[in-house]
Structures are given as structure tokens and as C-alpha cells.
């Protein structure tokens, strides 16, 4: 059974960089039929796609976040990571890592989510 | 402001059938398949429907999906109290080259 687990600081100061890691177990992030991504949910609001990364390292980013965003893979640790720079209070949200399946265009596995608060 | 449009709320009594709509455009629902997610209070979203109308293993057949043109719908029949939560539609957008979501619909079982 595939499992994803987010980890990282729960509190980040304004203007600093938010860094999160997703550890994947029960499957390989190098699988050609999968890709990996980050989705966030501000308190009381809907879901927002942040970006995705394929096993090749190719990335797709939400245009509204692209200038501040880096998503990367670490195949040796079966992990992928998110870095979002110059954060503000508007970046406060529950951050989810997730797996997508290419063939059926679906997001089939999600991490439990981690709350990141941006505050001084 | 979400790319896909969902009603903010829906409700029904136990045993009833409810539907939740999701409206998009030619670059998303009109050209790619729709997913629906169930998010129970305090939990992560869970895949409910993929490829417009397919249920993952373990999802009851009370849940069904359909779409037509640039709109999609989720139907829940035989409504149960444990169905109470938020429901989100999502689809890959060919113009954005990324996933787009609806704003979510809060389902209340009266």
C-alpha cells in the first residue's frame, strides 16, 4: 500500500522560505506511470494545485506561484520536496503531497497533510 | 477564485439522492476527464471518482459521476450521515498545464 508523509516546519516567518519534504513508502517515485505533486488548502477554503514533478525531473508549476517555487526529486531517498520563497500570510495552509497516475489522469494517493503557518 | 465552479453547499436527508455540479471550460472539463474527491472533516481528500465515472476499489456504488460538454456532476444516492463533508471536483487543464479544482461543496445530511 502506497503511503505519503509530509514533513517540515509548521511555522515560517514572513519573507522566508517554506520547505517541505514528502517521503514515499510502498512504491518507487521513479515509476514511469506516476508523477508527484503538492496541493494546498488555506484554512476554510478550497484546494489549490501548487505544482507537479515527473520521474524524469520535468516540472509543471502553478503560474501564480512559479516565480517563488521549486519542486525536486531525491530518488535515492524516495522523496520529493517543495520550496516556496518569500512567503506571506497568504501562504498559510495545509500542504498535501500526492501521487498522480498518468494513464487515468487522477490523483489517487494523498499524504495526511501538514499545516504551515506564516507568522512572525 | 477557483477555475471550476461548484455550489458552496448542498444538503439532503438520509436515503435521499443529491447531486453536486462542477462547471468548467473547453480547456479542462471539455477536453480531459474529471475526478471527484471526498474530504471528511479533519482529513485529507480521498479519490471518489476518476475518469468521469469510474470508482476506485472500495468506493460504494452509491457514488456516481457523469459529465456533458464542459460540466460534470457527482450523484450520491441513499444518502448516509457519514457522507457529510466536502466534495471537490478536479481536472487537468491543458491551457494551464496543471490541475484545477472547484471551490468545494459542503454536503450536509439533515
Could you describe the 3D structure shown?
The complex is a heterodimer of chains A (120) and B (110). Chain A is mainly beta and 120 residues long. Chain A has no helices and 11 strands. Chain A has strands at 3-7, 11-12, 18-25, 34-41, 48-54, 59-61, 69-74, 79-84, 93-101, 106-110, 114-118. In chain A, strands 2, 4, 5, 6, 9, 10 and 11 form a 7-stranded mixed sheet that branches. Chain A has a 4-stranded antiparallel sheet with strand order 1-3-8-7, with no helix packed on it. The radius of gyration of chain A is 14 Å and the shape is globular. Helix content of chain B is 0%, strand content 45%. Chains A and B meet through strand 5 and strand 10 of A and strand 7 and strand 8 of B.
Would you report the number of β strands of chain B? 9
Mean pLDDT of chain A: 96
> Terminal Cα separation of chain A, in Å?
39 Å
Low-confidence stretches of chain A: none
The helix fraction of chain B, in percent, is: under 10%
Q: How many DSSP helices of chain B?
A: 0
- Please compute the radius of gyration of chain B using only Cα atoms: 13 Å
Radius of gyration of chain A: 14 Å
> How much of the polypeptide of chain B forms β-strand, as a percent range?
35-45%
Q: pLDDT under 50 segments of chain B (min length 5)? A: none
Rough shape of chain A?
globular
* Mean residue pLDDT of chain B: 96
Q: Which structural class is indicated by helix and strand composition of chain B? A: mainly beta
Order of helices and strands of chain A: EEEEEEEEEEE
Strand content range of chain A: over 45%
N- and C-termini, Cα separation of chain B: 28 Å
What kind of sheet is the major sheet of chain B?
Answer: 6 strands, mixed
Describe the oligomeric state of these chains in a short phrase.
heterodimer
Number of extended strands of chain A: 11
Amino acid at each position: 500500500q502506497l503511503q505519503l508523509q509530509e514533513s517540515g516546519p509548521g511555522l515560517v516567518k514572513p519573507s522566508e522560505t517554506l520547505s517541505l519534504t514528502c517521503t514515499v513508502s510502498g512504491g518507487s517515485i521513479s515509476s514511469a506511470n506516476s508523477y508527484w505533486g503538492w496541493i494546498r488548502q488555506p484554512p476554510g477554503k478550497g484546494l489549490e494545485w501548487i505544482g507537479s514533478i515527473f520521474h524524469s525531473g520535468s516540472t509543471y508549476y502553478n503560474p501564480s506561484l512559479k516565480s517563488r517555487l521549486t519542486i525536486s526529486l531525491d530518488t535515492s531517498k524516495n522523496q520529493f520536496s517543495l520550496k516556496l520563497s518569500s512567503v506571506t500570510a497568504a501562504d498559510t495552509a495545509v500542504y498535501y503531497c500526492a501521487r498522480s497516475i498518468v494513464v487515468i489522469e487522477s490523483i489517487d494517493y494523498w499524504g495526511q497533510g501538514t499545516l504551515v503557518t506564516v507568522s512572525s | 477564485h477557483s477555475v471550476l465552479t461548484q455550489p458552496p453547499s448542498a444538503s439532503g436527508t438520509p436515503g435521499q439522492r443529491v447531486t453536486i455540479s462542477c462547471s468548467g471550460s473547453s480547456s479542462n472539463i471539455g477536453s480531459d476527464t474529471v475526478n471527484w474527491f471526498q474530504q471528511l472533516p479533519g482529513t485529507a481528500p480521498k479519490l471518489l471518482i476518476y475518469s468521469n465515472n469510474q470508482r476506485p476499489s472500495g468506493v460504494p456504488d452509491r457514488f456516481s459521476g457523469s459529465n456533458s460538454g464542459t460540466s460534470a456532476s457527482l450523484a450520491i444516492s441513499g444518502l448516509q450521515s457519514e457522507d457529510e463533508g466536502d466534495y471537490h471536483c478536479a481536472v487537468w487543464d491543458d491551457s494551464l498545464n496543471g490541475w484545477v479544482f472547484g471551490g468545494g461543496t459542503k454536503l450536509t445530511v439533515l
